[in-house]
Amino acid sequence: MRPRRSDVAVVVACGLALALCPVAVHAHLIETGLGPVYDGITHFALTPEDLIPALALALLAGLRGKDHARRVIFALPVAWLLGGIAGTLAGGPALAVPAWLPLLALGGLVAADLRLSPAVTTVIAIVLGVFLGYANGTAMAQAGPGLRGVLGIAGTVFVVTTLAAACVAAWQAGWMRIAWRVAGSWIGASGLLLLGWSLR
């Protein structure tokens, strides 16, 4: 059955009306309407520049064993929280950390399966947490959720890194260790791709 001309005209008119009435859009979701803590949780979950490095660090810690994993699951959220508080209180622009750097560095470390000391893994977690936390803190201060949004982010970082590091530490037999390293290589490749785009 062919559509009538009047039906087609109505559809085209509605499409043009929608196209001519744009609304404001934002690259990152900050306000969900559920409250500032949930705004922070959603912001972290929907920001790959934050989520993927946290997962990569959890992969690295889990591959190195339970001692590394325990240190990271506490050091990363605390550093993220302190960096977020500093960013919220500073109110200035975020530090310009290129998005490719943590992906390339952490993905490369996971893929290489280097034997790091627990102290080195902890320092990596602290540095990552402070820099990304500071950027999140400035975003939360500008958007409105403030310190409560930072608390939501830090809590989510703790949950995500704990679950991911526990899975990796528990499942390392045989081919699973290779699978975790392959995931790290994909993260590193994503960082390399972002580096290429930034040099374009």
Provide an overview of this structure.
There is one protein chain. 40% of the residues are buried. The chain has 200 residues and is an all-alpha fold. The protein has one domain. Helices cover 78% and strands 0% of the residues.
Strand content: under 5%
What share of residues is helical?
A: over 70%
Largest sheet: none
Average pLDDT figure: 84
Number of strands: 0
- Termini distance? 50 Å
Please, how many domains? Answer: 1
Order of helices and strands: HHHHHHHH
Low-confidence stretches: 23-29
Total number of helices: 8
Radius of gyration: 21 Å
**Based on CA inertia axes, which overall geometry fits?**
globular
Structural class: mainly alpha
Layout of secondary structure:
Layout (H helix, E strand, L loop, with lengths): L4 H15 L16 H10 L2 H17 L1 H25 L9 H13 L5 H26 L2 H25 L4 H25 L1
List keywords for this structure.
200 residues; mainly alpha; 78% helix
Describe what is shown at a glance.
With 200 residues, the chain is mostly helical. It contains 8 helices and no strands.
